[in-house]
Amino acid sequence: MDQSENKSTNPCIAAGAQTLEQVIEARLTRRGVLGGIAAVSGALLSGCTTGHSETAEPQTPVFDFDEIARGVDDTHHVPVGYGTDTLIRWGDPLFEDSPAFDPMAQSETAQLRQFGYNNDYVGFVALPDSEDGRNRGLLCVNHEYVSTTLMLPGVAADFPASMTKDFCLTEMAAHGGTVVEIVETEDGWRPVVGSKYNRRITAHSTPMEITGPAAGSARLVTTKDPTGTVVAGTMNNCAGGITPWGTWLMAEENFNGYFRGEVPEGHGEAENHKRYGVPGGWYQWGRFVDRYDVSKEPNEPNRFGWVVEVDPTDPTSQPKKRTALGRFKHEGAESVIAPDGRLVIYMGDDQRFDYVYKFVSTGRVNRNDPSANRDLLDDGVLYVARFDEDGMVDWMPLRHGEGPLTIANGFRDQADVLIETRRAADLLGATPMDRPEDVEPDPSTGKVWLMLTNNSERTDDQVDAANPRANNQFGHIIEIIEPSGDFSATRSRWEILVRCGDPSDPAFGASWNPLTSENGWFGSPDNCAVDPSGRLWIATDGNERTGAADGLWAVETTGERRGTSRAFFRAPEGAEVCGPKFTPDGRTLFLAVQHPGEGEGATFESPSTRWPDFNSRTPPRPAVVAIRRVDGGTVGG
Ligand code: FEO
Ligand code: CA
Ligand code: CA
User: Fold this and answer.
1) Is the pLDDT score of 356 beyond 90?
2) Domain that holds residue 124
3) Smaller CB count within 10 Å for the chain: N or C?
């Protein structure tokens, strides 16, 4: 979901910072001190090439495929020599008793047995090969949100008055996530309908335990849950992660949009809700179900905005909301094991002028016994990033009692610090960023890739070294280099890999390697992945601002081609691209094509595309696709 309309709620954004020239000067001074100025000063001054890492580093294999052309049309495109399978679509059956997809007769009951809407994160957990030797695994897919007037028949003309309770319950059932077993056949990957692993998780019908330091807080208590430890469902699950022990992390992002009403005047949660944009009023659910109306259940929003951990191998297991990871608009939750065995999870808070975080567990990962890691995410330190002009990142702990995180500032305990993570980070002086999306660690290099999607509200006097463009419409990508590959470090280095947008117009201030063609540059980086060869792939949400469809690009990060981008996949009109996820052998790439056909004036009756079915009686259907090389080789060459 492109939240570019979603205004900042951060009251602490720094003004009067620096001009761009001052930022560049400060960076050059740092480079001079570090002895690297000769190699980089031209690049920084001209703005036409990318920053270079200062240490000798292993080179990743160069991408080798014929890139596709920029453009927009009603279908998807891949390079010559590649094939695309539509693996699973909104409404497809998961169970033996699943009803056939009937877009004119949608219901909560049917949707609970079918693949949900607007697939976003894609996780893959390999299973032992099938008896016939075929590859198989579990696909874990988030269903972030629903495009109401595109999904439901007959509601657009008189929206929102046309919305009924049944429509809202259907929407709730289309949210959440899906676990589905998939198997690679001679004809490509296929879902295993009726697999014992298959499961739907929804916004309304899946009980979840709230765990960690905030569990049981009075601020999480509602009429239906006097314990503050049990909540029905998860929503707006955007990106996520798979832990080293095979659990699935679902990140709750724009939870604010589901609430309506106002808290009573003087209520203790009023300022807290304001900082998170509650109530957003994007959906009609609160008209029919009290929990989504904050005038009736003022604590309910505090039970969302967390990271949910799910065991995809046990469909009867209860998902857990891990409060130690903080409460904000979580984009993703990709993890890596630090050299000492502790788990580190990187997370972005996707809002203009909000922050980048990492969580470091107290305990060490048991690589041999997954069950020993069952509660590892309940105890650890949450850090927020301050990106300094000298090219260093300071990771500042959000610990109750330290610094400003005290009773005097309204934090009675660690539960308060976590429920109000944003305010705690404000007080610590974290760096307000240009909408942090995916943050992807690469265990093979000690690097971390941070997608900053755009921020058209940053003004000239708000630019800083890590967010160097005012009116940043196209976003940029930051490389964080952890010292000696120690992901648990509290002080790291950072560089800008590329500033996105059209490099042919100097007014945009874009910076790509000049080897990038007119098809290769893009705007609004969102989700990303590092493939088994250590190469970076970046998906976009909002590239239409550049006049072309969203897609997936392959970006070189090492050697002479560092900062070169090449177009690999183009989405159908109206869609953004999520995932991406590679199988461990690198031969299959899964992509989630989200909200195809969405756009100004698009409705169920009149969408801009009917991808992927192209049937006049079927609306466009969000779907996960599997892309493979025709010759069976590694995706990307
Ligand atoms: Fe749901 Fe930040 O994209
Ligand atoms: Ca997005
Ligand atoms: Ca996203």
Assistant:
1) yes
2) 20-253+305-629
3) C
